[in-house]
Design brief:
Elements lengths: L7 H20 L5 H24 L4 E2 L1 H22 L6 H17 L3 E2 L8 H33 L10 H34 L7 H23 L3 H29 L6
Antiparallel strand pairs: 1-2
Helix pairs in contact: 1-2, 1-4, 2-3, 2-4, 3-4, 3-5, 3-8, 5-6, 5-8, 6-7, 7-8
Length: 266
């Protein structure tokens, strides 16, 4: 865990963010809605502070746990916007728990020190990749909400107790489409400008193989939905497979390098 004096502020901020997330995660049913929203907003702001300290610190760090932390923060941002449009969305406790877990995980595994790059375009490439993670993660959250809505329908529950199933389906595939565009841009940038960004040409390593496999999976999903009307469990199954492959692409490879092999590298 980070114990240096320079990182004390980040640790305290991270613990405060996790504590704020724990409020709606553990006691949402016993707190007024306004209190839950305030706790989530506070946690979201503290979480952003942790991310900024990690990426802008001396030295800046990044790895599998910070990548998960950024992804969770983006999903929470999407949820905050959507909850204003669809007050029926009920995922606060789950997303708050996810936020708390990823913040604490990033404190334990802060990642490797980032090397100074000569390319000013490298942060943009990373931003595209992380944004695609966020969009696909939001799609997975909505797919989970779809499964819950379908279960409520099968149990003959109140049909007005949540967001309609068809609305959730549309939102899910909008996030898939947005994530696919961002992932395509990320892969094209790495393929065409890899030497400028990283000082080396495109390489077929574990990260690129899993990234391309995930891209192909999402392409099949979008094509199947467009041409053959795929929906329901078949579509969600393919979404989960593609998201799992994408998770393995960076987070999985960095976890192996940082934790199992204890090695650095890009």
């Amino acid at each position: 865990m980070i114990l240096s004096s320079e990182s004390t502020g980040m640790v305290l901020l991270g613990l405060a963010a996790a504590a704020a997330y724990a409020v709606p995660a553990a006691a949402a049913s016993r707190i007024a809605p306004r209190g839950v929203r305030f706790a989530l907003l506070l946690a979201w702001l503290l979480h952003a502070g942790v991310l900024m300290l990690g990426l802008a610190g001396e030295p800046p760090r990044f790895g599998f746990a910070p990548a998960l932390s950024v992804t969770a923060w983006l999903v929470l941002t999407v949820y905050a916007i959507e909850s204003r449009l669809f007050p029926q969305l009920q995922a606060r406790w789950a997303l708050a728990g996810l936020g708390a877990f990823t913040v604490l995980l990033s404190l334990v595994f802060p990642g490797q020190t980032l090397h100074v790059s000569a390319s000013p375009w490298l942060p943009l490439h990373w931003a595209l990749g992380i944004a695609s993670y966020g969009m696909f993660s939001a799609a997975v959250v909505h797919a989970w909400l779809m499964t819950r809505a379908e279960h409520r329908i099968r149990q003959a529950a109140d049909p007005h107790s949540g967001v309609p199933l068809l609305t959730l389906e549309r939102l899910t595939f909008r996030f898939v489409a947005a994530g696919f565009v961002l992932l395509t841009a990320t892969l094209l940038a790495g393929w065409l400008f890899g030497e400028v960004l990283y000082g080396q040409a495109w390489r077929w390593n574990h990260k690129t193989v899993f990234s391309v496999l995930s891209w192909l999976t999402f392409a099949v999903l979008l094509l199947g939905r467009s041409r053959f009307g795929w929906r329901g469990r078949r579509a969600l199954r393919i979404l989960y497979i593609g998201s799992g492959l994408l998770l393995l692409a960076y987070v999985g490879s960095r976890f192996v390098m940082e934790v199992l092999l204890s090695r650095g590298g890009a």
